[in-house]
Amino acid sequence: MSITVCWDDDDAHTIIRWDFAEKWSWDDFHEAFRISMEMGQHSLHRIDVLANATKSPHMPLGALAEFRRLDEQLPPVVKLIVVAGSSPFTRSMIELFGKIYRAQSWRTAKSVDEAHLIIAHDCQREQDLTA
User: Fold this and answer.
1) Secondary structure class of 68 (helix, strand, coil)
2) Which of 112, 120, 121, 128 is most exposed by smallest CB count within 10 Å?
3) How much is the pTM?
């Protein structure tokens, strides 16, 4: 498979990381989603997804439909999907997707480190709102 799925934080199990190879397909994407659903199926706490696309400059055709399909299947515990290191085109597609479908959970980052900061900031904001 061209997308490796693992826990980004081995102990806490709050961030599922997808590491994209240079070339991947929507079938790989669907399989990564299936694996992720199995990993988090018993979780009662917040889970975020960090999609590490730093080695993947291109995306297959049909992105908006595939993003929507995934977004509609997300369980309530998934709060953010942050795509890191993607091309300007991919970032534009994700931003367009968010605007068209009012998908509030999708973000982009230039690096994995920036993605971690976005997730940490959103977790803190959520904690502040519930305090």
Assistant:
1) helix
2) 128
3) 0.90
